[in-house]
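Worked Example 4.2. Consider the chain below.
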Amino acid sequence: MIRKKREIFAQINRILDGFLLGFALWLSYFLRTQNIVNFDLLNQIPPFSENVWMLAILVPLGPVFLNFYGFYTHQQLPNLPQRINQIFKAGTLLVLVIGLCVIFLRVYVPSRSLLILLLLIAPLLLLLRNWASEIYYRNAVRHGNFRESVIFAGEPSAIRELVNKLPASVLQEIQILAEVDLETLSVDLLVEQIHEHAVGRVVLCFHKMNVDCMQQAINSCEVEGIEVWLDANFIRTSIAQPTYDYLSSQPMLVFRNTPEVSWAFFVKALMDRFVAAAAILLLAPFLLIIAAIIKWTSRGPVLFRQTRAGLHGKKFTMFKFRSMVPDAETIKSQLDEYNEMDGPVFKMTEDPRVTPFGKFIRRTSIDELPQLWNVLRGEMSLVGPRPLPDYEVKKFDKFSYRRRLSMKPGLTCLWQIRGRNKVTNFDEWIAMDLEYIDNWSLEFDFVILLKTIPVVLFGWGAK
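Applying the procedure from the previous section yields the following structure tokens:
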């Protein structure tokens, strides 16, 4: 878990360093052409285009050489002399490659000042980036942004032994919300703790091979959509096609039934924030007009706020344009007998609580647009299972339904493009959500977004 996040963080730093090395070359050229710094006493040097071959070496190979010497190894307290030594060794290799190009490819460096400035500026920029990244990472950990909530379960002595082995830097990055004794207590207690705490991971620790207990715990987490990390020091062979990973230096078996944190997830999150911010800015006049019409046509607030279950069941406040009368939640109990959806979800075609203008914005999904703010805040995604009210999630009569909570909820989903209100079987709805989770990819998200456009424009499946 933490290791994966560190790897992504290191990859981002590699990309940044590639750009910084390219910028260092350009800045060196700019300082020389402006005669701000001049060690070769030439009046004029060739245009920057003749130095592009150096750019093609610095940008891709610079981060590779730095990584080879451990520059991207995470340290809570970075050692400045060590970092300088790593940069010096990587720089030596880069100079060697440039020298080989000069000798064998018969290219030339047009200015001695350019190289001297590059050797001074590039290390400084790299050290500043490294310092800023480490400060940012430590502050993020301190404020809980990179902290991951987990539950430890198993034999108490094994749990204590594992926790005591973890270095302080790792303990700062995880939050142990519960330690469940599975040696003397039932696995049902673990399930209760999962429901009580919004966690995406359970760590199992045993000294003895207790297959029955492990199997029950893993099965319970599987139906919840929760990753299981098994302390695998005593296991010689893999079981149930697990993923092998490490928690600090401890080998773990990961039983994963949801998409793994990866570059694709990072891109998804980045695109969510970017698209949401751009849409809010572009649609701001339209949103104000809709708000004014709602205020003019019916009494009550413009926005409807409701507590919904987000990722792993974590509660958040979801926003919608109000499409119903202000006391809609109060009188809902009077309409339960007209519910057209089986299961815990309430759906009614001709809902008397809906206002005249509300029917229009619900049919066109305009009422969902304020959820762009939830996407911008990171509580929702553009694509994902639709968030259900917290009280409906608590009514789930099958724990397997909760696996839909293992992905961040979205503005649109398979249910949205396959009929929406035409789907009256809750099991069918859940099946579509799990189909999305099991087959998730960036391409799948893109296809769903494209298919959502005509659904929204023409109101297909909406009532």
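The longest strand covers residues 174-181. The chain has three domains: 2-142, 148-255, 263-458. Compare this with Example 4.1 before moving on.
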